[in-house]
Amino acid sequence: MLAIGFGFSSVTSYLTLYGKETGLMEAASYFFLIHSISVICSRPFTGKVIDSRGANIVVYPCILLFATGMFIYSRSTATWMVLLAAACMGLGFGNFNSAAQMIAVKNAEPSRLGHATATYFMFLDLGFGLGPYILGHIIEGVGFRLLYLLASCIALICMPVYYNGLWE
């Protein structure tokens, strides 16, 4: 969650600046609307899938969707690309966030549920907090497009990290 939150913080922090740089400010203004609609519409279905088939069936596609969204966002030259990226990131990040929290709670001893939840959110917040600071320095050297491409790669690296964790 730390790495995924770190990557997503680049969008939440620099959406307006990226929109201005690319001339896609109007699309940027609809980004979180599309993102939110994707999350709201998909979570009831992904929750049922997790309950019936386990978290892995949702986690891997979510990481791929998030990485795909970041990649599309890094290459956006038109409104439809920004909105497609928002939908992919909503499906990816939004559902990964829920699945990862469920995994953290599910794998904790009942007496440690509070610690598991706190640790989960501490790492999410750490990603969201450190991301803009660190990535802001990187943007100066590589620009937005390469930064978002790097964030896409960071998300893809999360797949083998998750797999090697043997969460389920």
TrEMBL record:
Membrane topology of the entry? Multi-pass membrane protein
Q: Does the keyword Transport apply?
A: yes
Q: What is the annotated localization of this protein? A: Cell membrane
Positions of the Major facilitator superfamily (MFS) profile domain: 1-168
Task: Answer whether the UniProt record assigns the keyword Lipid metabolism to this protein.
Answer: no
**Classification via Gene3D superfamilies:** MFS general substrate transporter like domains
Sorted keywords for this record are:
Membrane, Transmembrane, Transmembrane helix, Transport
Q: Which domain of life is it from?
A: Bacteria
Q: What's an example GO cellular component term for this entry?
A: plasma membrane
- Molecular function GO labels: transmembrane transporter activity
Membrane-spanning parts: 27-45, 57-74, 80-105, 117-139, 145-163
The protein's name is MFS transporter
Natural source organism: Ureibacillus terrenus
